[in-house]
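Hi support team,

I'm opening this ticket because the web form for multi-chain structure prediction keeps timing out on my end. I have pasted the exact lines I submitted so you can reproduce it. The total is 279 residues across two entries, so I didn't expect it to be a heavy job. Is there a limit I'm missing, or should I split the entries? Thanks in advance, R.K.
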Amino acid sequence: MKLDPAIRDQVLATVPSLRAFAISLCGNIDRADDLVQETLLRALAHIDSFEPGTNMPAWLFTILRNLFRSEYRKRRREVEDADGRYAETLKSHPEQTGRVEFDEFRTALAKLPSDQREALILVGASGFSYDDAAAICGCAVGTIKSRVNRARTRLADLLAIDSVDDFGPDRATRAVLAGGGRG
Amino acid sequence: MDESKEGRVGLKLHGRMGKSEAMKSHKTNVEAVEPTADASENPESMAKRPHRPEIRLGREAQARIGELLRNMYNSYVNQGVPSHLADLVRRLGDEG
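Hello R.K., no limit was hit. The queue was backed up. Here is the completed structure from your submission:
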């Protein structure tokens, strides 16, 4: 049976974001494209299991995420990429942020455990709600929230991101506060 | 991955001086919060996990990380759909 054009268009519309998710997980464009291809093959082979009117992106992301976990992790070549090869395999450079900052962020993201990385990407970049992200990852909402929180904390640590606003406008003020202004 | 290993808090967030008693009373960039209990989690697994407060980043740090993440992600999205993937969807969609 020929694929409903509306369904086909929904699938096509999701591919850029699906691919972005795959690249963020895999850290390698070629592997990501393979993963997306495999996802599309599986999705279209089982398109009858998709209920029209429900969340197509979430359905596709679930398939991709499960494929990543079951197949790519078995290769034991996770993108905990301490030596920076992750950054070297990616060709895209954004226009809005500096190249160094972009590469540093990708390197730091690669150092996260995969479950934290996927949770952060789903909620913070792909635009899914915590509920949808939990459904995609097959875990409780509280677990997703915890993973996102840990991911952010770890990234802030790796990137030395902090805010001085809460302490005052300058280091001298912070020093006074830290020195123990008791009484 | 053992998530309990990820509970370390980056002391860099408070500078080298660490966190004095006076600072604890001020709003901090990193605020310790009690973990949110999730009723659907396995009680047995919850009992086994050491109870420790989760650290939550301040708004500014969260916003900065979110900005970096979205910039990276959107750079990938903006690459569009590779032709071989678009052709695959169309071809599979046309097969009877």
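A quick check on our side: Residues 29-81 of chain B form one domain. Let us know if the file doesn't open in your viewer.
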